[in-house]
Amino acid sequence: MMERDNQPINLKDVLVEMKDISELMVDLAYSAVLFESNAIADEVIELEERMNDLVYQARITSMMSVRRIEETEPMSGLLQLAEASERISNHAADIAKNIMRHVSFPANLRRALPEAEEATHRTVVAAGSPLDGARLGDIKLQSVTGIRIIMIRRMRQRFYDPDKHTVLRSGDVLVGRGPEYGFPELCELAGQPVPGDDDLTPSPISDLDRAAALMIEMKNISELSVGLAYSALLHENLDLANEVVALEEELDEMRLRLDLWTLEAAKRTEDVASLRGMLYMSSFAESISDAASSIADVVLREIEVPAILKRIVRESDEIIAWVTVHEGSTLDKKSLAESHVGTVTGMVIFAVKHENRWIYRPGRNVCLYAGDLLVARGRRDGEEKLYGLCGADTDEIEDFEEE
């Protein structure tokens, strides 16, 4: 039996790492499908091993932390967060293991994945390219392309969520997350050609095309659900928590339609085995949404939300930001496309509250006005830039450390 380190562990640090790893595993699982990459799938499986250790630490630490009956309710909320992270991790690992078993995924799906609201991209730094020898902070890669590097593989070493001090080298494999329009510029900076549409052979099966498009919609909704769930938790917002539940119900219906279209496509293709991957992916998206609903359930059941839960959300690699657009600011009376808010800040706006109405997954043509509340996710330095564009003082950024 493997020996474990029994030194005292800070529960907050454990849960922050669990949240970060689970979200990274989702990114890498989709990337492994897109590139049919055993190497990326192997990264996911290794992260699952780390997650298993963290789950053990979370359980032991939580049991040691509760000394009085009144402490059990807030602890239940922490354990629900840990359980949600573990569920996301397990299903991401299942996708990776299927790739390692050579389960194929339809070309229709791989062709559609880059069309998701946030795609996961992979490229290699070529010798003599602008990225060779450059620091991430100096080249401002996220501001220039809108793509955040979430992993670097260098020979046998792996660097997860590199910071601005990380120096890139020739041969580094970069995995980044961001909008599709930033990928050509990332490839150019890395000294690599941009993959063309010819790299993926289209399929004539209309049912499968429809299923692939629906799968991307499910991917977007599942990731939106996670962002909204953490945001609901951070601000104890019942409206957002209820929206997470509604999105889960919508996604359940979408999975039924996707499975039906995939089965219909099986009648018209000789490569039936490739359709298994589509069914695995629909289950994956649904599982992510279910985990998000579990997080929102903490708010819906009015479980006491301790300050530590809010610090976990704020201190993770990808934070949730709330900021109001001020009159006369850069964003006032401009669309998301005109303001280039995603490229400038690296933040993804996943919800806008205009007057008393919420707009989820706002498109590039959505116009922002003074008084609008923006909900975004991204890195902390991007949050500061977003506050600047909104005309807000960075002193308004909530600090849950002081609660």
TrEMBL record:
GO terms for biological process: potassium ion transport. One of its GO terms (molecular function) is monoatomic cation transmembrane transporter activity. InterPro entries: AAE_transporter, PhoU-like_sf, PhoU_dom, RCK_C, RCK_C_sf. Residues 107-192, 306-392 form the RCK C-terminal domain. Keywords: Coiled coil, Ion channel, Ion transport, Transport. This is Potassium channel protein. It holds the Pfam family PhoU. Residues 230-264 form a coiled coil.
